[in-house]
Specification:
The chain is mainly β. The protein has 5 helices and 34 strands. The protein has 2 domains: 166 residues, no CATH class; 264 residues, TolB, C-terminal domain (Neuraminidase), CATH 2.120.10.30. 8% of the residues lie in helices and 45% in strands.
């Protein structure tokens, strides 16, 4: 057997690095006395230590290796999982939400050898995060698995998450790669830190697993550079109209709702229904805007003007000309269906969840937008198709980012994600671009948005994943909507 030796790194240090020993060694652990030098006599009871003492409560990360790492934590009600890597907390995952990248800070020992608190912050929002890890048997109350650690994650926005953890080095492939190139312990730690700082941004991205299991849309509609309404069903492109706006494509991709101006001088618009198979369009309502298909395509909803007010109306897809008033609320925009009985609409102060079977629920828009974004009637809000708590908001900055392009009014548009329950807000739009009308894919993993400054062609459609990764060009058109 060939024995390999890592210079300056003992077997004990390796095991401690992996967090695999059944005990932990604090920063005050003493080495056994050598045979040539006898151990000092024990101190008398109550005798105070003499001389300078080493600090034992704070352990800078990632210099110290005397604490458990390479641990996967998880919990239920709500469901979550956490990666605790070589530097500390790396990523927090929740079903139905994009992963949260964490920036590790220091580690404190609450009980030397038995409990640790890993401090970090939410990379996107700056929220404070603390992960308390206790070495004790733990059960998740779902499976028969007995875990080695008990975890409690405290996130300033999400609250407290409780669960269990287990050492899982096999789930950290990046650790094995780094360990092969590890430097001896006697190398200056400051020099190592400087090298690691160079790759800080790269490390943040490395904790996000590439999204590969997504479904690219096969049925879409958009405006081409000439303003024509184009419907794509499979690989076939058809022109539905020479002009139009407020596009809404059915989930099967065979019916398109859009509005068409019937007056060159006034705001009046008609709602048209285009059928892909026949290539015909017909008017189904007037003085309307912002139509949407219900999740099962059995109904439609839109805003209709009755005097000075705009209100939400609904109709059966089989009889779209026969619509009824859903709510008497006066709103500025309709933002789509939340489920089969509820729509989301908004005015300039509140977002309203309007339902057929329960009272309307409202949330102040200032909570959604925060201090960085303006509230305008031209904004769009889209509900995530896999998680109704997650909103995709297209809005204008109060103060455009440095170097970002602006329109004739000096505005710059972008989009962000907003979690209604936690009030967590994550900006996704590129800081060096102008982005509007962001739309979800049906699988909820992709976001399509119009990129470019209005009035300054070309306007195109880009795609980005919901974790902010992999922005790519999707179409030469704009204001794209997805069927399936």
């Amino acid at each position: 057997m060939v024995r390999m030796r890592i210079p300056g790194l003992s077997v004990l240090a390796c095991l401690l690095t992996l967090g695999l020993l059944p005990f932990a060694v604090s920063s005050q652990t003493q080495t056994p006395p050598s045979p040539q030098k006898p151990a000092p006599p024990p101190k008398a009871p109550g005798q105070q230590p003499v001389g300078p003492q080493l600090p034992a409560t704070t352990i800078p990360s990632p210099v110290s290796r005397h604490y458990p790492i390479l641990i996967i934590g998880q919990g239920n009600l709500p469901e979550w999982s956490l990666r605790l890597g070589m530097k500390g907390p790396e990523r927090l995952d929740r079903p139905g939400y994009p992963p949260i990248v964490l920036d590790p800070a220091d580690v404190t020992t609450d009980q030397p050898g038995g409990a640790w608190t890993y401090n970090a912050k939410d990379e996107a929002t700056g929220a404070v995060v603390a992960v308390k890890l206790t070495r004790e048997s733990c059960s998740d109350n779902v499976s028969a698995t007995r875990y080695t650690f008990r975890l409690e994650v405290q996130h300033a926005q999400l609250g407290t998450l409780s669960g269990c953890g287990q050492s899982s080095p096999e789930k950290f492939p990046e650790f094995r790669k780094k360990n092969q190139l590890d430097m001896p312990d006697d190398v200056d730690s400051n020099a190592k830190d400087k090298d690691k700082d160079k790759d800080k941004d790269k490390d943040k991205k490395s904790v996000l697993e590439p999204i590969t299991k997504f479904q690219s849309p096969v049925d879409v509609a958009y405006l081409d550079p000439s303003g024509h309404v184009i419907v794509v069903h499979g690989t076939v492109h058809k022109t539905a109209s020479l002009s139009g706006s407020d596009l809404a494509l059915s989930h099967d991709g065979k019916k398109l709702l859009f509005t068409y101006s019937i007056s060159k001088t006034g705001p009046e618009r008609s709602l048209l229904l285009y059928e892909y198979d026949t290539g015909r369009s017909r008017e189904i309502a007037s003085n309307v805007r912002e139509p949407f298909w219900s999740p099962d395509d059995s109904r439609i909803a839109y805003l209709k003007s009755e005097g000075p007010n705009w209100q939400v109306w609904t109709a059966s897809a089989s009889a779209p000309e026969s619509a009824t008033l859903l709510s008497p609320l006066n709103v500025d925009s309709l933002d789509g269906w939340v489920n089969a009985t509820t729509v989301l609409a908004s005015d300039l102060q509140y977002a309203h969840w309007i339902s057929e079977d329960r009272p309307a629920q409202s949330v102040p828009l200032k909570d959604v937008y925060g201090l960085d974004f303006q509230i305008l009637s031209s904004d769009t809000i889209r509900v995530c198709p896999v998680n109704p708590d997650l909103l995709l908001v297209s809005a204008y900055y109060v103060k455009p980012p440095t170097g970002a392009p602006t329109d004739s009014l000096g505005l710059n548009g972008t989009f962000f994600l907003y979690e209604v329950r936690s009030r967590r807000r994550t900006i996704l739009g590129p800081l060096d671009g102008y982005a509007r009308n962001a739309e979800w894919s049906r699988d909820g993993l992709q976001i399509f948005f119009t990129k470019g400054v209005p009035g300054k062609p070309p306007l195109v459609t880009d795609r980005i994943f919901w974790d902010g990764s992999n922005e790519t060009r999707f179409s030469a058109g704009s204001y794209l909507v997805v069927g399936k």
